[in-house]
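Table 4 source record.
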Amino acid sequence: MLSQVLEANLRIQVSQLDHEIAEERAKAEWAIFEPVLLMTLAREANNRENTTEQFLSQRVSVFDEHNDIYSAAIEGVLPTGGKVRVGTQIRDLENNLQLPGRNEWESYSGVTVTQPLLRNRGWGAVASQIELAAGDSSIALQDYRGQLALVLSEAEMAYWELAAASKFVEMSQASVDTAGVVLRENKQRFEAGKTTEMEVLQAEAGLALRKSHLSNATQRRLDAIARLAAFLGMTADKAQSVVPSDSIQLIGVEPSIEQALMEGVKSHPAYLAQIERCNQAGVRLAYAKGERLPQLDLKASYGLNGLANTFKGTIDEGFIDRDFPSWYVGFELRVPLTAGKRERHQLAAADIRKRQSLLELSAIEIDLINGIHVLVDKVGSLSERSGALDQVVELHERVLDNEQEFLKAGKSESRKVLEAEEDLSEARLEALSSILELRRAAVELLVQQGSYLRKRGFDLADFTEPE
């Protein structure tokens, strides 16, 4: 039955999709390390009037050029926080300074690295968004587990409510049958002159009352069918054929408060989700602390220059001859003149958020512990109450049997039989209600301690309890 709920319930499907979305977002953050290919194909034109200095240098009053530019580079991010670019640029030069019929091809091939030394340095700065996205995925998983446990546990209780309602119908029908037997016997005895008409009227009134109870029990069963049908994704009319295969009966439950508390801190979805939020707050705080540092970058580059009359010639000169290398090494420092007001307040906010998440974790832990204590006590008391009510039912059954025997022997009245039967029906109903309450409390305890899904065989395969 729970498998059908898992497939049909829309709330579960929505929560599952939220988890899948969060997983895809977490995977997407790893794209920060994906290399990027950058290619350029361009043509530039420049026509300018030379200054005196430029005229003396170039020997022309107007400089006119039309160049074709071809470039390709691969860019990427390093786990150290640095950025690297490897590429080649080739320019086909055409200007009025060149000799007639002579082409010039200029090339540069090299690598450029920028490595932060203070701010944005190291894996923590680079992977902060990856860790936050992974945390969101874990939180979505716990939300999904919580929603799954909530819906399945409600569906299970709807099933047991239907089982109890069906049992209540059986009990009410049995009560009607008993009252019917008493009425027939009273009519026979009245016709034989062995009893009064008052006995017949009392039996008729008792039968009518019990038929009313049967009608109420039938309606209660219809309401239970409708509730269960909602979980199964069915309409109430189609769910009329749903018949509980298990009868509701007293269960033996002896929960251990120590074991329940241990399960709670290991498996409860809301508690585990808040732990992940605390971890996220720690990541944000560490990143905010790093942002308070000055921006000091090491910049280095090395490349090979080429110049020739052909495309192939400039490539050969750059990569084979290697006669004209160029390199650069330097440091770049960037310091806010106002002592980093923005970063200072962001750090303060991150620190507050960290303390807030820890307080929320403590609040959830207190609620979790108190809830487990209450439910363990409730399960224990309901178990004792159900056992006592079973004994009450047995005693009332014996009383009814005796009264029926006395009535057959002419030593009792139908009123006493009906009263004994009514007392028995009330005792059975109270015992049935107590069993239903016990099952509800037992299910709520499993949900509260986070072990419901595992106990029912529905926990998620990718969920691992923290060590």
